[in-house]
Fold GDT1 family protein.
Amino acid sequence: MDSFFLPLVAAALAEWGDKTQILAMMLGVRFGKPVPVFIGVGIAAAINMGLAAFGGSLIASMISPDAALLFLTLGFAFAAVGAFVPFSDTDADAIWGIGAITTSAIGFLLIELGDKTQFITAGFGAVSPNWILTAIGATLGVMIGCAPAIILGQTLRERAPLTSVRRSIGVLFAFVSSVLAINAFSLI
């Protein structure tokens, strides 16, 4: 169950205030149809999180369990640092005229490549006995994290303190990374 639930929670938290959530919000506002945007985001998330979890499982077969735990630690550390790096939402302004599902899938697929959620998912894939459950959990987490943005759109952006939320989650991820590092180095 940890292979599914922990990546789900981590991915859902990692999406809050992230550029991918801003893109999902912009797509929801632009198309005015949450369901096709949600489907497109789901397709892209499944591809990205599947690749990440599978990649993590491949790496795990080449390294020790402690090194795999350090790999997960790095995923959380990158996510923590990324939470404090400002980004421009003009990155998410590219909207193509190819329909809501296709635009959402392609846009989200591209912007999510190398994102903190993908690093965390790869880390969970490395420590999980079942990378498929990890991929499913992370995919659902991404979709849960993006759903409010797709549905509420600009209202969420104007009323929710997304920068503060993102930074708070960054602090949480830094703490998780520290605890994982202590365990990986067997300091406790």
Remarks:
- The first helix runs from residue 2 to 15.
- Residues 2-184 form one domain.
